[in-house]
Amino acid sequence: MPAPSNPFKRALRQGETVFGCWLGFADGYAAEVMGEAGFDWLVIDGEHAPNDLRSIRDQLQVLGNSRSHPVVRVPVGETYMIKQVLDAGAQTILVPMVESAEQARQLVRDCRFPPLGDRGVGFALARASRFGQTPDYGLTADAEISLLVQVENRKGLAALDEILTIEGIDGVFIGPADLAADMGHMSETSHPDVQAAIMGAIRRIRAAGKAPGILSQDDQVIDAALEAGAQFVAVGIDILLLLRNAKVLAAKWQGSRG
Q1: pLDDT score for 116
Q2: How confident is the model over 208-220, as a mean pLDDT?
Q3: In degrees rounded to 5, what are phi and psi of residue 226?
Q4: 102 vs 100: CA distance, rounded Å
Q5: How far, in Å, CA of 248 to CA of 227, rounded?
Q6: CA–CA dist 56, 52 (Å, integer)
Q7: Torsion angles phi and psi, residue 36, rounded to 5
Q8: How far apart, in whole angstroms, are the C-alpha atoms of residue 62 and residue 11?
């Protein structure tokens, strides 16, 4: 029995466009609710949300019953963190702040078993192999792991063309907030210079045969990114969805007081 097929990786390789949402509550119950919303993919955020390995595992478990493919963003591109989330059952990894081809090459190795990589061969203990009940896991898992790297500052953009030559990277996500800050436009992701850099990067990524990705809650930015060739597009953040709708509801009824 081989490792489970990765529908997210397959969709990107077939040139499809998939829409997702960010998960910031770090909670399995909230993730299960979001899994019923109909998104193609959901990011379990280990960088800016208060997640640990156990909460990531819990969210992977509940999303296994949904149509939404879980993408795990690790806090940093450390080998041991990637090993842990892969063993916990993640098949798609998103790594923030990738700034060089050398770093990207090591991330590819982190996602592969020897002799092609550095992933530890301890899957008999792991949820990923159904605790050893997937007999061909070690032989087939590499092909079903999807690695996405984030390029989100000027240094990363300068290295982008070389990063795009590396086999084993399925997609490159452009991080608008960090890029804007690094370009001197903190909290101004819609600044013309920032948008020009983002859309130019998306076109370069697509032209190189990789999948470009982005997060935006601005319809105009999303439309521009899609036109430029973006394939995996996050269009919301669960925390902000709750907060904004709650504020509208509160204001509606508070404003009705005589």
Answers
A1: 96
A2: 97
A3: -65, -40
A4: 5
A5: 32
A6: 6
A7: -90, -5
A8: 22
Please check the confidence at residue 51 and state whether its pLDDT lies above 90.
yes
Instruction: Check pLDDT > 70 for residue 258.
Output: no
Residue 68: its pLDDT value, please?
98
Domain residues of the chain, as ranges?
7-254
Work out the angle at residue 48's Cα, subtended by the Cα atoms of residues 42 and 53, and round it to the nearest 5 degrees: 70
For residue 236, give both structure tokens: 């919301």
Is the pTM for the entire model greater than 0.90? yes
- For residue range 216-237, what is the model confidence (pLDDT) as tens digits? 999 999 999 999 999 999 999 9
Site of tokens 């709750």: 242
What residues contact 14, with CB distance under 8 A and at least 6 apart? Answer: none
Return d(Cα 159, Cα 196) in angstroms, integer: 17
CATH number of the domain at 7-254, out of 3.90.550.10, 3.20.20.60, 3.30.70.120, 2.40.30.10? 3.20.20.60
d(CA 178, CA 229): 21
State the catalytic residues: 48
